[in-house]
């Protein structure tokens, strides 16, 4: 059946059997090169263990930029570019974040972490009674009870979704919009259930966005076991107060850079294929899956194509984007410059969904591009990505679509484990599997090769 | 495209659109029941943490049988059966296994573990010069140099295979046949490179099979980093001796049991669908993936079908097989009794490839059965298994095919992480992801439902 599909697709798109055979062989060479000689895992170890957390504006951001620049040079770029971009510089402001629960005279410490971009409580504790809010509908129902209170959003990460990014899409608004929507009704602080279905109690950060119409109030995420406990106490109508202390604040914008390796096209040097991930991570973790994986896979694709002596027809850009986590300034700058230079971009691919075993690509394009990429699945599928779905490509490349109409492609590894560790201290090097990381690079390289060879 | 395939398949097999719709809805119910109410993960915790390692004949084997019996009752079996079977009773014989390397006057301890079923060195150390053997061809070339020596098989687990079970199939003969093939030429001991591509140094055991033509000699597996180190020393022509001590021996066969839950068929009570895994594990690990996952998924399928009030047309047997690891006596007994009773078995399904994210089923059957199962992929694929391949079903159900010609089906989760932990102390509860385990049960339950509804 696989073979039949293959023949059908090839007849449709006019690939000869000889061409298919050559493609099969070249992709097998890509896989061998990666699975035998890959440097992705060792590079990831350096990025996560030597440099570590690297939020925009932090000293580690600069170290990561230098590391990426040198590695793109060493991995065979014809040239390496820097695109300067001003990035936000939020700092957690100390490790003494704390939230304590008071029930009568009893006191219990909760495992919390301040939300990214959130404001601190100042030097003193913020203490207030807590209101349990299970969803935004309930917020509206209880809007008259929120003044002077701390809102606890206990919205459940919905385990019924098979693709866990859908559960995240469903829940993340409580983190991004929750604080301002509570402040609108006079709340003075927010505790939000972590966007996760993990079995542990580790809290997950992530960016919040204050609506300038309302007061900025402190906000923390709480671990899942503590969230369950707190909800149970509140459902018992226990009189619960929370005391919280956070220290977050913004410093002046900092000067960051997109770091870009380039392989010059032999036939269409002015037509670009972009492949990338983001170099920054949240400050509370090693950012191994998010997005050290995407960064090291991107560099591995470059290393592999060079190691095989591949000379691309189009110019391929290997982009380590600045500042995805709390600003997307890197992605915006990349698209802005591409537009200003009137560049033609035929496809942009991002890996920012973890370093897990490959399963699919998502495509945001017209039908013709979708069907053409789909016709290549019989070639790529044996290495993991045997499915093509419609969907966004990635946060960093989205501005290319907005600015230039570029088709986007997202690399989609298996999503079951991702939200166990996303934006949490558990996103460590040890949570990445060497072969899974490498197979991601194989699938990405295969797609880049086919796009470059056949166009879109 | 998915929808088109779906319609095409349904027309071919005569399923009405209404039937497809009902099937989609029922499988969605299965998924909801498992993802919201699953007990598989908690059951796995009990099996691995409370009972632990459970090799055939061990006290833990009996505890696991009792646990399984009670759980099959509690999960809704119409009745629970025991099939008595005599099982081999190999014991490691002490935790003081050791292998030291001597180079000149230097001494280094290697991380080793005796192979299952292997003979011990007796109370004294076995010390001899070492010969590096990279493969069986080299063994034949060097056959005159092996008398009185210890053979070190350093055959590499081939990372070029995308499906890692192929690498295992390629390498495992050095563990199963290596000792006797070395003994044939007078070797007195064997050290074998672990069948793994893990990044750690943990040794992996597994069964060896002595050929009764030759002397039984002690044999250990060595961790990968130590294997690399040892090979490098030997390639430098360093004069290397190994001293090893192991204590393995067989006790008299023990009385074990297959533990079987049954749901009686309403229309065809004398036609059976078997689903199962194996209850035993190697003695050096919790056996969480191998095969606690298969056991708890099998029981979860039962619990789920009962929770949904499903009344099967055929009799479904949920089988916890005894003694897969070093004897397959449980699987043999099950097929022997089925044959003696002239039972009709329409399909046997096994989960014994780990508790990782679902990807495929393998089928060992004629073309008609294969194509019929394939026609159901559009219904099951959204939950993970979107591929059907030809291949064996599982060690425990293989005798059913041999004895009765029963079509076999193997549940194939993603294989990239499996040989990191297979037969090693790292096969722990913590290495299993809750959702991945549960999704396996969803896919297995969906297949059981479709086989029961439509037959094969």
Summarize the structure.
The structure is a homodimer of 456-residue chains. Chain A is of the alpha/beta class.
Written account of the structure:
Chains A, B: Keywords: Carboxypeptidase, Endoplasmic reticulum, Glycoprotein, Golgi apparatus, Hydrolase, Lysosome, Metal-binding, Metalloprotease, Protease, Secreted, Signal, Zinc, Zymogen. Chains A, B: Pfam families: Peptidase_M28. The structure is a homodimer of 456-residue chains. With 456 residues, chain A is of the alpha/beta class. Chain A has 2 domains: 2-91 and 252-454, Zn peptidases (Aminopeptidase); 98-247, 3-Layer(bba) Sandwich (Glucose Oxidase, domain 1), CATH 3.50.30. Helices cover 38% and strands 25% of the residues of chain A. Chain A contains 16 helices and 16 strands. The first copy, chain A, has helices at 2-13, 17-37, 40-51, 59-74, 136-141, 164-171, 173-176, 178-183, 224-235, 288-307, 329-340, 367-375, 377-380, 398-404, 418-421, 434-454, and strands spanning 79-91, 98-103, 106-110, 112-114, 126-133, 150-153, 189-193, 219-222, 240-245, 249-263, 268-278, 314-321, 344-350, 358-364, 387-390, 408-413. An 8-stranded mixed β-sheet of chain A has the order 1-10-12-11-13-16-14-15, with helices on both faces. In chain A, strands 3-2-9-5-6-7-8-4 form an 8-stranded mixed β-sheet. In chain A, strand 5, helix 5 (136-141) and strand 6 (150-153) form a beta-alpha-beta unit. Residues 1-12 of chain A have low confidence and may be disordered. The A-B interface holds A 1, 31-32, 35-36, 41, 159-160, 162, 164, 197, 199, 357, 374, 382-384, 386-387, 414, 416-417, 420, 433-436, 439 and B 1, 31-32, 35-36, 41, 159-160, 162, 164, 197, 199, 357, 374, 382-384, 386-387, 414, 416-417, 420, 433-436, 439.
């Amino acid at each position: 059946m696989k073979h039949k599909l293959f023949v059908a697709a090839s007849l449709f798109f006019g690939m000869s059997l000889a061409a298919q055979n050559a493609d099969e062989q070249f992709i097998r060479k890509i896989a061998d090169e990666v699975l035998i000689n890959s440097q992705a895992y060792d590079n990831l170890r350096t990025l996560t263990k030597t440099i570590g957390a690297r939020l925009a504006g932090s000293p580690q951001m600069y170290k990561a930029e230098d590391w990426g620049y040198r590695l793109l040079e060493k991995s065979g770029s014809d040239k390496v570019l820097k695109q300067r971009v001003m990035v936000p510089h939020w700092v957690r402001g100390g490790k003494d974040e704390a939230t304590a629960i008071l029930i009568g005279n009893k006191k219990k410490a909760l495992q919390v972490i301040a939300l990214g971009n959130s404001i601190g409580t100042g030097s003193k504790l913020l203490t207030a009674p807590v209101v349990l809010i299970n969803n935004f509908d309930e917020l509206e129902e209880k809007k008259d009870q929120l003044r002077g209170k701390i809102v606890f959003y206990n919205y459940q990460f919905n385990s019924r979704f098979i693709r866990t990014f859908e559960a995240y899409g469903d829940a993340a608004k409580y983190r991004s919009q929750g604080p301002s929507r509570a402040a609108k009704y006079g709340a003075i602080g927010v505790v939000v259930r972590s966007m996760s279905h993990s079995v542990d109690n580790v809290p997950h950060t992530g960016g919040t966005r204050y609506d300038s119409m309302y007061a900025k109030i402190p906000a923390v995420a709480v671990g899942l076991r503590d969230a369950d406990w707190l909800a149970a106490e509140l459902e018992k109508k226990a009189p619960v107060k929370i005391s919280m202390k956070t220290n977050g604040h913004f410093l002046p914008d900092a000067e960051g850079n997109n770091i870009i390796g380039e392989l010059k096209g032999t036939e269409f040097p002015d037509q670009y294929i972009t492949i990338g991930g983001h170099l920054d991570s949240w400050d509370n973790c090693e950012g191994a899956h998010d997005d050290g994986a995407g960064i090291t896979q991107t560099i591995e694709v470059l290393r592999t194509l060079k190691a095989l002596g591949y000379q691309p027809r189009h110019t391929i850009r290997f982009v380590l984007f600045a500042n995805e986590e709390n600003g997307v300034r890197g992605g915006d700058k990349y698209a802005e410059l591409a537009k200003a230079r009137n560049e033609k971009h035929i496809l942009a691919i991002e890996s920012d969904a973890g370093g897990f075993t490959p399963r699919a690509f998502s495509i945001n394009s017209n039908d013709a591009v979708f069907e053409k990429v789909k016709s290549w699945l019989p070639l790529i599928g044996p290495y993991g990505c045997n499915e093509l779905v419609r969907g966004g490509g990635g946060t960093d490349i989205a501005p290319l679509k907005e600015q230039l109409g570029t088709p986007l492609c997202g690399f989609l590894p298996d999503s079951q484990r991702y939200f166990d560790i996303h934006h949490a201290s558990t996103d460590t090097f040890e949570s990445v599997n060497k072969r899974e990381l490498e197979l991601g690079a194989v699938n990405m390289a295969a797609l880049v090769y086919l796009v470059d060879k056949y166009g879109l």
